[in-house]
Specification:
The protein is mainly alpha-helical. The chain has helices spanning 2-48, 54-62, 69-82, 88-99, 107-120, 125-171.
């Protein structure tokens, strides 16, 4: 009897944990998108006002951002300085895979960032700033949609976690 009750309690707690982990992933995504927006603004400033090259700009701004974006920028700064015939886009994609894959970003988030990486390495200063502005606008839109939907989605995740656990407990009773 006690073992059965303990099992039911653990099922309920486990399903609540799943709901909370989905809640956490939405918060993490919003945080990373904010950090990417800040990265974009800082990059625009370094490129336009500091007249820095991309590796210099990455090295300068990575100190002002939190992980995982700072690690991503540090990787880009080092790898683009040491690049021996490897295109910027390939380095950018490797950095994304290493530092941003597990950050709860959606496929669309990663595709937009990858598109930015495809454009940054080949353009002059004016076009780089233009590409950064386009990326910034799209990321702001995605963040705005996420923040609008987040309260309702978080409530649904938590509620489904609790109700799913209770349902399993009743079914297995």
């Amino acid at each position: 009897m006690y073992v059965k009750a303990a099992g039911m309690l653990l099922m309920i707690l486990g399903s609540v944990g799943i709901g909370l982990s989905l809640d956490f992933s939405m918060n993490t995504r919003a945080e990373v998108l904010r950090s990417l927006l800040r990265m974009t603004a800082l990059l625009k400033g370094e490129i336009s006002f500091g007249a820095s090259s991309l590796p210099e700009a990455f090295a300068q701004i990575q100190r002002r951002l939190a992980m995982p974006v700072s690690g991503f920028l540090e990787f880009l700064a080092k790898e683009t300085e040491q690049a021996e015939g490897e295109s910027f886009h390939i380095i950018f994609k490797k950095g994304m895979e290493r530092y941003l894959k597990g950050c709860h970003l959606t496929r669309e988030d990663l595709e937009n960032l990858e598109a930015l990486g495809m454009q940054l390495g080949f353009l002059d200063q004016r076009n780089q700033i233009h590409q950064l502005e386009l990326y910034e606008q799209e990321t702001e839109r995605m963040l705005r949609v996420l923040l609008e939907e987040m309260p309702a989605r978080k409530k649904v995740c938590r509620t489904l976690g609790v109700l799913g656990g209770l349902f399993l407990a009743i079914v297995l009773l």
